[in-house]
Amino acid sequence: MAHSYESRPLAALARLPAYPWFVVGTVCIGAFMGQLDASIAQLVLPTLQSTFHATLADVSWVALVYLLVLAITLPIFGRLADTFGRKTMYTGGFLLFILGSGLCGFAPSLAILIGSRALQAIGAGMLQANSIAIITAAAGPTRRGKAIGIQGAAQAVGLSLGPALGGFLIQALGWQWVFWINVPAGLLGTVLGWFVLPKTEGIRHDDRGFDWWGAILLAPALTLVLLSLSEVTRWGIASVLFLSAFGAGIALIIAFVVRQLHASFPLVDMTLFRSHAFSAGNVAGLISYALLFGVFLLLPFALERGYHDAPAAAGLRLTAIPIALGIAAPFSGALSDRLGARPLTFAGMLIAAAALVLMAFTLDGAAGTLLIVTFALIAFGIGQGLFTAPNNSAIMGAAPLHRLGAAGGVLNVTRTIGTSLGVAFASALLDWRISAFVGNSSTLGAPPAVLLAGIRDVLWIFAACAVIAAIVSLLRGKVDIDAERRAEIAASEPLGGV
Q1: What is the pLDDT of residues 41-81, one digit of tens each?
Q2: Residues 70, 128 contacting (CB under 8 angstroms)
Q3: CA 390, 396, 401, 407: dihedral to nearest 10 degrees?
């Protein structure tokens, strides 16, 4: 069903053979902007901790609240986009993201900054809930892997520029510019989205409806789980407060799943998980994103306080991860169209595990080990790049055309929950290890040697998680689910008639 209130793309543009790639390029602006913001926000945490004299657990909520709101809103906006139109949701998301970014830069306190990040995340949720569905429908089944690989490259460019640009902005202009930098990119994305993206097509009448009870259950469930994980060191793992909050969160998650199984119009289509490829891909993807953003939280502290790098120098060094990811992602995405996801995702996670082990061995604060650490960061990025695009392509290949929005919403929720867990676990584990060494969990006053020892211990745990993700990828099955769905997708007209 078409949506008459959405404008059609420019006619001259829509007639071009390359029009699908213009759609992909437009969506890549949002992908670039989201990852630029995510990587900058991680880098600025040490500066914010000193500026507001806050604990790591408190300042980590600048990152966590963004990820939490994303996780809550993604399935909601994914569902609403299937109902009211992806183009409307996508362009509106740019406007909210710009507003939230501007308010972040003007925040006079940590509490107001965290609140502004929540508003920013609502706009990001409107963008991310629709991006992969728009790309998948525009590219078609034979070019889907390549298109998703290009999106992965755009995300990697954003991640690449984030640390270096963020470090420069913090030193030269102040931390506020870390957020204001999003405004011009958001304005460009809004204009292009309106004139380039196609009207939403292929929405079935029975997709109309919204599960408000599901939304009501999801918000406190994720909030309680992430809050309890981030505060576990301060509360104590055996405390009544932790056990109550964590237990209530898990109970609400179970209630949410039960609700989705029985709702007429669920936020998350649980029937998608009947596909082994869909389920395994989401589990492995969750671990992958947790590792990526956990490392992004840990390494700025290691480089700035362990190796005494300036923010700009630390940012430049951290670009090794996203640059390597960006180089590997398009190639792995295109290869997955021919080889399938299984071998590439398995190899990618094994390489990431080996890189984490190398970092755990060598991260000691000595200038002579910086070259090895940088090499490990490059290897980690290559592993992530080999994994991400094939895994996302396999997940989307498991969904029928009319459920692309729902499948994309699940994929994005998985990514956001993974990144949230990565930030929360990295913060909690680091606090735990520092507390074990010196009797308190303050990263602000911990000696550099103690801080690095704690980070090394966390990296060993992350390496074990990467091995688990590799095993899950290996067990996803020999037959690519896309082969079973290709005939159905190919027989359906893509969005906008492209």
Answers
A1: 777 778 888 888 877 778 878 877 887 887 778 777 876 77
A2: yes
A3: -160
